[in-house]
């Protein structure tokens, strides 16, 4: 199964090494494709945040394959723990979903058009993260999910999921 991560904006150079590290590790379990889309509206001054989010959503929507399962990260989304996330990915693989696309918005979040296209929304946390940190957390969780599925020793948490 292919997993794509579509993110608005580029991550800073300080995170670059860690992002590459987790892409490589998660790549042992999934075919990973990370797509960085430009943030904002180039050369525009005095543009409202609503206009920026709309333009970013057009970029996002143009990259989404029709047959992909789309998961948008949104603060009001469903909360999952690592075991639930691993189980979700395992179930998707069993159901032969060809591609899952995770979408991480820019500074102003995601437009309703992207949320409507998404099959579901997930919250990483009640905290607010930069898109770079959100991307790092997602990539680490993809790696962790793979290790949980293969019963490898990386995940130190309980292997019994009492809450989900």
Number of strands: 5
CATH superfamily: SPOUT methyltransferase, trefoil knot domain
Instruction: Estimate the global geometry from the Cα principal axes.
Output: globular
Give the fraction of residues assigned to helices. Answer: 40-55%
Count of discrete structural domains: 1
Largest sheet: 5 strands, parallel
Strand order of the largest sheet: 2-1-4-3-5
Proportion of residues in β-strands: 15-25%
Order of helices and strands: EHEHEHEHEH
What are the low-pLDDT stretches, counting only 5+ consecutive residues below 50? Answer: none
CATH level-3 fold name: Alpha/beta knot
Description:
- The structure is a single chain.
- The protein has helices at about 15-25, 50-65, 80-95, 110-115, 130-150, and strands spanning about 1-10, 30-35, 70-80, 100-105, 120-125.
- It has about 160 residues and is of the alpha/beta class.
- It has a single domain (about 1-40, about 50-150), classed as Alpha/beta knot (3-Layer(aba) Sandwich), CATH 3.40.1280.
- Strand 3, helix 3 and strand 4 (about 100-105) form a beta-alpha-beta unit.
- Helix 3 (about 80-95) crosses helix 5 (about 130-150).
Which helices and strands, and how do they pair?
Layout: E1 2-8, H1 13-26, E2 31-37, H2 49-63, E3 69-79, H3 82-94, E4 99-104, H4 112-117, E5 120-123, H5 131-149
Parallel strand pairs: 1-2, 1-4, 3-4, 3-5
Helix pairs in contact: 1-5, 3-5
